[in-house]
């Protein structure tokens, strides 16, 4: 199965919600009046596209087609074009800069977001590209996170810097920075703890990790990636706000799109925050995390061929 088809399957639940909703409104051609527009807006909101983004997309349709006869196909094609326009500015693959040695990527996100798995998948992909990779198990509060990263390390032949549970995460990050620099590593991926229950504690720890990293290299971390679980829908907005306050989030990775009908949240986040979406995940395999392509995503949401 090619990536477009895997993406299509992964976004199936969200697509069914949107295309089914539009299909229920348009069995044949129908005049686009205010009531129909309101119902279309509701369809987009049910896929977690958010009120303001849904209103923006339906307003764009009204601008060109209001009071005209339109079909299901017309609506889906127009929506796909407008969603592509929202997503294109944020569809930016993560570029590893060879001259940095190491290119330092700090990865954050709440527990269960798929953060540690994402790090493992990225490590595998970079290793296969011939890059020298190192991992730092900076989520020192969860034994499972440390073990999970070590399993990925063994699987990919990548060294993992780890300490005992409860060890100082900032100290570990400092050691990892020095070891990565001395070993001539291309990419250093640093995991972090993901507790959101006590925001102030989390923020202080993240800020401390960044301060310590900067002692070794003032320009690092070069990327701060926030991993978001698409199944949380609109809650993703609050997570972006919280982590942005703590650290300068530079980009997003969306996971678990295959497990939800809330995939529209990607569009809402792009519209609101404008943060680069580096990659999306639609499955468990290492190859199921791929760079984000705006048009492919929009077409699959609306059940169209690219």
Strands across the major sheet, in which order?
A: 5-4-6-3-7-8-9-10
- Biggest sheet features: 8 strands, mixed
Strand percentage: 5-15%
Question: Helical percent range?
Answer: 40-55%
Radius of gyration: 21 Å
- What is the subunit organization of this protein? single chain
Low-confidence stretches: none
Descriptive account of the structure:
The chain is α/β, with parallel strands linked by helices and 306 residues long. The chain is 51% helix and 13% strand. The protein has twelve helices and ten strands. The strands form two sheets. It has an eight-stranded mixed β-sheet with strand order 5-4-6-3-7-8-9-10, sandwiched between helices. Helix 5 (72-87) packs antiparallel against helix 12 (294-301), helix 6 packs parallel to helix 7 and helix 9 (199-216) crosses helix 10 (235-246). The protein is elongated and about 65 Å long. The two termini are 16 Å apart. The model has no long low-confidence stretch (mean pLDDT 93).
